[in-house]
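Field: sequence (string)
Field: structure_tokens (string)

Example rows 1 and 2, in order.
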Amino acid sequence: GNPADITADIFNDISKFSGALDAVLSDRNIDQLAILLASLPGKLALETSNAIIAAYAKFAKPILIGWSARRERASEAYDALEAAGIPILTTPERLGRAAGVLSRYAEIRRRMPVNPALEANRIQAKRPGRHHTLNEIEGKRLLRDFGIPVTEDVVIQPGQELKRACASLSFPVVVKVISPDLPHKTESGGVQINIVDLPALQAASDEVLRAVRQAAPAAHIEGILVSEMITDGLETLVGIINDPTFGPTVAFGLGGIFTEVLRDVTYRVAPFDLAVAKEMIGELRGYPLFEGVRGKPALDVGALAQALVNVSHMAWDLRDRLYELDINPLFVRPLGRGVAAADCLAVLAQS
């Protein structure tokens, strides 16, 4: 039964304890074992610990110990269990909570199948001391590698003929300066929106160059980015934080004017699956906006959830290289039209 009680016979024959461990751990229906050692001391504690360690090595299933004996009464046993990586909890309540957390963690791992399409784009490298900020083109290329949709963009150089270069785009468009030295381009005048035709595009291109050269004369300008302007989407923000305690963590919230006013943001440790991504979306106070309000259409929550999953895979796969990432805004469009990242700030360790 559960619990399995071997009684005080352990004091007479330690082999019966070993036999009980084998019987329980060999059961395919049992995934982990919690053992209450009460206040078992001295030599018997060491013999018992050695039997547990042998069973742990044999079956490779998690074992947790609930043990109230003071360390000075069983120091060798404590040392042996800790050296084997078997955790010791001091009360039955803590033992139960730890077993529950381990079970939930295992369930999360089972829900995280590898995505072969994304696996091909993994970037592996040891993290050196230096890092650099990607420009928007490089950042969006990184997003595309992990299956995160981005806006349609064209790169032009000063003096380039605009009509031919931008033939694939439809007005209105957005004009931005490309520079790794300007992570926040708007503050330097490096962004112009709602450009409606070719003459306005030429004027906007000239203006962003002039403004940036005046506001940040030392900034290295790599060109001008002309992007489709999303007019039917809700602005959201997605970020990756490489937290020293929790590791790669994904933040998600409402973007645009809602970011500073509502501070409506939720977090999850990466990686995670679609069910968790949908939980994140549903947690926002502004969730009704995704369902459609005041005659506006419902938004593509399914595509948003998949984008969040892909971001979480990026966070995990690049955990040794990625310092931070901000997608702001990630536009969520009406149902069936998906999502699109309009801007991306990424800081990577240099390889």
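Row 2 begins here:
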Amino acid sequence: MPRYLRVLIWLFGAAHLLFGVAGVAFPRWFFASVPPWPPLHVGLIQIGGVFDLALATLFLGATRNFDRYGPLVVAVGAVAECGHALVRLGHISAGDDPVADIVPPTLMLLFGLILLAVFIRSLSRSQT
């Protein structure tokens, strides 16, 4: 696994941790402060927060023993990040979310594609 990947996974794990705590513990603050989304139910923000906390646990936990957990994190992270990003970009393109919200899902998609490339590369190495 590339050396930069552990740092990148730690950074995205920390970001997911911050968003997760804010979404679960302070949903009304999150709802009022973070991007100008259309009105959502507070429970939806909390559900999103739980998703972020799960990814934070996955990413930050893996950085403690990256040699052991890295392959699993790369595969699961690629699916989770790309899937989440594509859903959010779909909401933007449908007009459900404002165009101003394009940066976070774009970064998530980029990170997911990096993880996917690392995963595909590791598969090709294991077959030779």
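free_text_note (row 2): The helical segments are 3-25, 27-33, 42-64, 66-94, 103-126.
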